[in-house]
Amino acid sequence: MAMNNEQELKELVRQKYSEIALQDRQDNQASCCGATCCSDEVTNIMSDDYSVLKGYNADADLGLGCGLPTQFAKIKKGDMVIDLGSGAGNDAFIARAETGEAGKVIGVDFSEAMLKKARTNVDKLGYNNVEFRFGDIENMPVSANMADVIVSNCVLNLVPNKDAVLKEIYRVLKPGGHFSISDIVLAGTLPEGLQKSAEMYSGCISGAIQKEVYLELIRLNGFENLSIQKEKGISLPLDILKEHLSDEEINQFLNGGTGIFSVTVYAEKPLEAKVCCEPGCCN
Fold it and tell me: What are phi and psi of 181, to 5 degrees?
């Protein structure tokens, strides 16, 4: 399935992640971000183990992440934290353990099924400072200069217009606020079969962009003190590759220097806006 319409891509992701909300974690673990056809390998391709972190809630863990951004997010007691693409609430609950009762956590997601699951989970836990809002992270239902910290786990690669999301992150962060985001990036060009696959898009792979392009996009949107907090290579199981590529294409892919990586990136919104004259350089 060839895809080039942003709205079609977003609807694809909404549909897939609404289906995932109804699956259990075991089903999701046998797939790529929970979204693609099942692999014979029972471990999740992307995600790290959350179960050792304070605030972990098994009901909220659908095995959909590709990192542990909350572990690196430097969340302080009393912080206002926003989780982009909050799903069933996993990262939001970890963030709540860091910010404490004096803080506030807002999760934003555009899947009603995911929001229903997250709200059920927060009701079970009895937290009165964790809220889940319906919304598009390209146009967040949040006021400007509101968040101390923004986290997100394996979500930006699912959004066609990543520049729009970064502009929203900049708008919503307080001056001096920061983000810690785990996402999928590429080194080299993906085979055409993976690029054009709807399953691989909603599974986080073909929606990813080049690592250096991603980092430069962050810088161009005015963020400072950018650093990579964690990076790990992602290997796609052979049975998933065979769904999309010929044997010859698989051999070229595995030996052609192309890499798929999970990176956790940290960056800060400046305390003061930069003064400039170039068109488009001010946020």
Answer: -130, 130
What's the CA angle centered on 11, arms 5 and 15, to 5 degrees? 145
Question: Measured between alpha carbons, how far is 19 from 112 in angstroms, rounded to an integer?
Answer: 11
Contact 250/257 with Cβ under 8 angstroms? no
Cα atoms found within 13 Å of the Cα of residue 81, Cβ hemisphere only: 34
Give the separation between CA 220 and CA 167, rounded to whole angstroms: 10
Spatial distance between the Cα atoms of 259 and 213, rounded to a whole number of angstroms: 15
Instruction: Give the Cα separation of 153 and 16 in Å (integer).
Output: 17
Is residue 194 within 8 Å of 205, Cβ to Cβ? Answer: yes
What residues pair up with 185 in beta bridges, in sequence order?
209, 261
At residue 283, the pLDDT reads: 47
Q: How far apart are CA 156 and CA 84, in angstroms?
A: 9
Q: Is the pTM of this model over 0.85?
A: no
Six token digits for residue 223: 């963020």
Report the distance separating Cα 142 and Cα 139, nearest Å: 9
Radius of gyration of the chain (CA): 18
Interval 95-145: pLDDT, tens:
999 999 999 999 999 889 889 999 999 999 999 999 999 999 999 999 999
